[in-house]
Amino acid sequence: MLAKQPWQMIGETKGTAHPINSLLEAAPKFEVATKITPTITVKHTENLEEMIKRHILVEDWDDVAPCELPDIGIKKNSELPE
Fold first, then answer.
1. Is the per-residue pLDDT at 46 higher than 70?
2. Cα 57 from Cα 26, distance rounded (Å)
3. Which of 18, 35, 52, 78 has CB 3.0 to 4.6 Å from 7, enough for a Cys bridge?
4. Distance from C-alpha of 43 to C-alpha of 40, rounded to nearest angstrom
């Protein structure tokens, strides 16, 4: 038979299932997932500079093309229909 687990390990509990302020006395353990930061090297910087120079020579500015908003029957500076 399984041994009874402490209240911290059984998931959601009611306030009456554990002693008052018991979590303040406990030291909860949890994991934090973080993304590894890339290592900036001379080669990485040179590749980035070459990419920027190539974009300048080709005049590729990566501009966002403005899109047309759909006409929903509202004129500028007027109130919304009810």
1. yes
2. 61
3. 18
4. 8
